[in-house]
Design a protein that fits this description.
3-stranded antiparallel sheet; 4-stranded antiparallel sheet; mainly beta; globular; 110 residues
């Protein structure tokens, strides 16, 4: 948690009504959101010691709470989501390896 105790979280806003909804509640900054093509899940990065890690959260429209965040498998080094596969069954993750520079890798969801 930053020195001031605040973290950044991800929110959505309904353009018609102006209603807002917090989508993440992490103990560290949540950034780099990527919506699954069907809009039913959100991949994002969470700040952690040594960089960022990627998590996926299911989105429950009409419900009061979204699903719990699921961490994706570690890909080595800081990583963040850059896109979903067109069928929504995997996330494209960019990972920075200290020895080889940035490389994109895919993480398949079960």
């Amino acid at each position: 948690v930053p020195a001031g105790g605040a973290t950044s979280e991800l929110w959505t806003a309904d353009l018609a009504t102006g209603a807002t909804r917090q989508r993440t509640d992490e103990s560290a900054d949540a950034n780099d959101p990527q919506w699954r093509p069907d809009g039913r899940a959100l991949a994002y990065s969470i700040s952690s010691e040594g960089g960022k890690r990627v998590a996926v959260r299911t989105i429950a429209e009409g419900a009061t709470e979204d699903g719990a965040a699921r961490p994706l498998a570690a890909v080595g080094g800081p990583s963040f989501p850059t896109d979903w596969l067109p069928d929504g069954r995997g996330v494209v993750v960019t990972a920075a390896r200290r020895d080889a520079g940035p490389r994109g890798r895919g993480a398949r969801l079960a």
